[in-house]
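Problem 3 from the worked examples.
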Amino acid sequence: MIQGCVLILFKQIMEKVKSSKRSSKNQQNQFPFLSILAQGVSTLAFSEKAIFSPLLKRWHPLAAGVAVATLHSCYGNVLKQFVSGIGDLTPDILQVLRAADKLEKDLVQIAVENSVDSEDGGKSIIREMPPYEAESVISNLVKSWITTRLDRLKEWVDRNLQQEVWDPRTNKENFAPSAVEVLRIVDEALEAFFLLPISMHAVLLPDLTTGIDRCILHYISKAKSGCGSQSTFVPSMPVLTRCSTRSKFVGVFKRKEKFQIAQGRKSQVGTTNSNGSLGISQLCCRINTLQHFRIELDVLAKRATSHVRNSESAHMDNIADGMGKAFELSTTACVEGIKQLCEITAYKIVFHDLSHVLWDGLYVGEVSSSRIEPFLQELEQYLEVISLTVHYRVRTRVITEVMKASFDGLLLVLLAGGPPRAFHLQDYETIADDFKSLCDLFWSNGDGLPADIIQKFSTTVNAILPLFHTDTDSLIEQFQYMTLETYGSSAKSKLPLPPTTGQWNPTEPNTLLRVLCYRSDETAAKFLKKTYNLPKKL
């Protein structure tokens, strides 16, 4: 009897709501049908509890419980049909689901209060009220909304990257326009998310930020791709040889011969290090772009944390504290990407763009007539471009990397410069003076790099240069001693040829051997011939 009466009343409420909706269809800001129905059902349930249940108890001890269970089922059937047709997340859908959630809580409360004195505490009634799971439906809809937004962001990232030319002149900050567009879409997605009328922002925010993190990580990866690496630009080391005691390398290179050797070397480098398509200004633009992302991601993370702290979610402080890790992958990738691009920029300048004055020109033939000045003049122009283009927060890092690459380049010329080079004891002063000029360029009378940074990274060069002032007999003794120390008693019968590590050190056998290979005197040549049968340079 109770269930039948409730069914009739539920149908009456539905008809009343439909009639009301028809009469007000031309009015704006209409509430969704199921939201109004939920309010009507809730009002009916409380009225039934207050007016009819006390009378009906004489026929059924849990009259109110039976009534609300019936109402719960009736509304649930209508809601189920509604949910099955849901596509995209809209404000109306959220309003209906929140109204359904509130109604269910009201009905469960009435059932529990009415069943306090029952034997099972109302469990049998509650079992007849399978939950609407409105919160779960909302959660799934929001997750679907997030997926759609992230797919759109991924499309924007790819589209903007395809059009990106990495020209620093496109805006006054010298970073890529694509970064502006991508960050705008990210900001809009975050703002739209926090405008959703839900109570689970903090719970679902990691889904959004993790997806954004991956999209930006994809952008960063593309920004670094195609730029090469250090090894892309460094020339391969020629085989070890000894100086010709017949020519002694003094004055044997005329200008024409030196030019031909330089051209030959340039051609060789061009074939082994083919990546010369990216200009320095484009690399600087990429560095600036990653720096811009790094700054803006920090701003976005703080803004998201502020939104979470102001949200309705429970335990919001604990969740907000964890937001410090938002965009963690992208932020880390920005730092690493900037480091890589700084190194690539430096090595491209020194070993590719300036190879004609460093690798192909410095100390070729007579040291006194092929000094470092041409390299310094052209290098200074690149440093000016960097100073005018690169973001001030990473400018020092780029210039420091250029300095380190220049020092590496000088050592490579001295220790692995190939047949065009040979050094006499008297060349030491010239080389040392050239190195001082190189350091002075980066110091720039106090306006450039700090003196302690220059000193820190010049340690290896300063340690190796004295070897070029050490007499040949002493060098041979040092080499033999360090080789024996390295290889032990097995090296006594025959000195092994130490492998090239590229880690230059005045006590490392291969470094000492290379100084001997480029020492232009008879003693060094005879030792190398007797010990290793190394071929002559020319």
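Problem 4, a separate protein:
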Amino acid sequence: MTLLQAPSSPTLTFHQYCTSQPKAGLYVAEKSFLQSTLSGSCFLSSQRQVKALNFSYTCSRLSSFTAKAASNGVSGQTAESEVLKALSQIIDPDFGTDIVSCGFVKDLLVDENLGEVSFRLELTTPACPIKDMFEQKANEVVAELPWVKKVNVTMSAQPAKPIYAGQLPAGLQTISNIIAVSSCKGGVGKSTVAVNLAYTLADMGARVGIFDADVYGPSLPTMVSPENRILEMNAEKRTIIPTEYMGVKLVSFGFAGQGRAIMRGPMVSGVINQLLTTTEWGELDYLVIDMPPGTGDIQLTLCQVVPLTAAVIVTTPQKLAFIDVAKGVRMFSKLKVPCVAVVENMCHFDADGKRYYPFGRGSGSQVVQQFGIPHLFDLPIQPALSASGDSGMPEVVADPQGEVSRTFQELGVCVVQQCAKIRQQVSTAVSYDRSFKAIKVKVPDSDEEFYLHPATVRRNDRSAQSVDEWSGEQKLQYSDIPDDIEPEEIRPLGNYAVEITWPDGFNQIAPYDQLQMMERLVEVPQLTPA
């Protein structure tokens, strides 16, 4: 089945464009064609997806077309479009797209007579490491317009909300990103990394919480010093109110007034689930989870109950640490949780003008190379870092200008950037293009992009409603689904699938792996200039 037939010539004439837009009407088609020829591309927008069909044109065609457009009252480039064109020069380095296409520009107000321009840049996170650069550059490019005398730029961030669908517990519905800090081995400094990362993100301007998921040996009560060291309950809502220290919200079994737990695995999983999902976290940009060591029931429960955005892996230079860490990385890979960074702790110390590696070298780089994790950060052996963990004040708070703090600042920037990329990839991975009446798929971490017929996707549902669980017999018949069916809504479901709502009320879970195996439509051709 063909989605769009490629023309025999790479040149798209005005007549071809008008005939390809039968619903637009001649005037609208002419206007669209004129605006696109001025920039050299024809842009068809559908559900926030922008398709560029490059084409060439002749001077005589453009001249006669411009005259016709002018006679129909099409005005020249407006002041608003001039401002947006100027702002489109600013490229977000994480997305590789200009800030106008990213949707960052909000509340644009232009008074051409007074020469005043005001707008708001709404970034994906208040912890954006280049927000000052965005603000400065936006002022500069708009002020360069000849008629502009005054520019007013305000900065803001998108409200905290998860990008994943599903019935999330109330406490998790206003958390943008959930970061797991894991090692799968005790004693490597995982809690130290989790706490200092959290306070680094808070220092960058984000709203942050820490969840200590180690019930058997909670570390958080030792590493921070909140005034209120006992978790409180909201009797009416039957929810937990987290304690706070220096603006970061904290929840740990150690704050429950019962010390360390002595209980079996299933009970521990239930305690962790209750502590995490019934807490009134409020609006958070990042919730850092200090994962317990291992890859058992507790870890799997956390990964399956909570929509993890990403994971940070902590290791030490020894080969033994690498073996355990590798198990954790494979667990996250199976659960479709991307690992964005590796922190190699206790990797060296300096003395007598030399650098020593008491535990050997290479565990961190081996994790990076073997599993393709893009970022590696080294933490030295420093008495101050160890002492801060016992004193109740994180090192990044005690010495914000020190060597350790600089490393955590680099780690914080990495986490912010990688989470933004993941959110952008997941939110746009699967969408419905109404102009082509096809489902567009671009799986995260893949350059492959393809289209599927909606009826094909619906007919390939593998749930119990469509396939008998015991016999494997197909209950949903081909003729049960009309060829012209269209999805009503497509929502991300974790990092592995989407949830599609159909007109008959059915909610289909479609994993990326399954979508990649379906019969595809012919891809939309990219028309190149003649």
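Solution to problem 4. The chain is about 30% helix and 25% strand. Residues 1-76 have pLDDT under 50 and may be disordered.
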